[in-house]
Amino acid sequence: GESVGLHLPTLSVQEGDNSIINCAYSNSASDYFIWYKQESGKGPQFIIDIRSNMDKRQGQRVTVLLNKTVKHLSLQIAATQPGDSAVYFCAEEAGGNMLTFGGGTRLMVKP
Amino acid sequence: DAGVIQSPRHEVTEMGQEVTLRCKPISGHDYLFWYRQTMMRGLELLIYFNNNVPIDDSGMPEDRFSAKMPNASFSTLKIQPSEPRDSAVYFCASSSDQETQYFGPGTRLLVL
Lengths: 111, 112
What we know:
The structure holds 2 protein chains of 2 kinds.
Chain A: E1 10-14, E2 19-24, E3 32-38, E4 45-51, E5 56-58, E6 62-67, E7 72-77, E8 86-93, E9 99-101, E10 105-110
Parallel strand pairs in A: 1-10
Antiparallel strand pairs in A: 2-7, 3-4, 3-8, 5-6, 6-7, 8-9, 8-10
Chain B: E1 5-7, E2 10-13, E3 19-24, E4 31-38, E5 42-50, E6 53-56, E7 65-71, E8 74-79, E9 88-95, E10 102-103, E11 107-111
Parallel strand pairs in B: 2-11
Antiparallel strand pairs in B: 1-3, 3-8, 4-5, 4-9, 5-6, 7-8, 9-10, 9-11
């Protein structure tokens, strides 16, 4: 989840394949993590969250994995669809109600 | 629920002019956040409120920026005077549980 300035990392996948988007967070005290999806011209949209007492959480077609040992978070999207094309952000919270966002990853789904 | 509402959606102004961005949070949410998003710096928290009281404004870039929340259903972010480097997308978000924040559609500001 490092800021990457003008250039976003891009993941290109074929429709129907599974996607894995990764995020490295920096604060070992962070205890709450969220994945957001941002489509062009829209605000970030909540996808799924996970607390530090868990290492996996599943939603509809999405799974979040948390590895606190290496401070790594991943978002898995099953059977990726064209509508999944967007920029995905991870965010971490270490108390104080403030989220710190990563730089984002652009997901492109090829039909 | 209509979600977080922001206005205007687009704003074009000239350098030196005052700009006021508006936000209506989701009803019942007691936290409100203002963010700025640019290509270079990504998504940055500017300020957030709890029960209409500013809690942390350390992200406000400088004195030209100010934010108010006169009641639970309305907040403003004001830039006076505006500068070209203020051009960005400004998002408002709200939450009820201190953690899961829901974002508005954003205001795209261009300062010429």
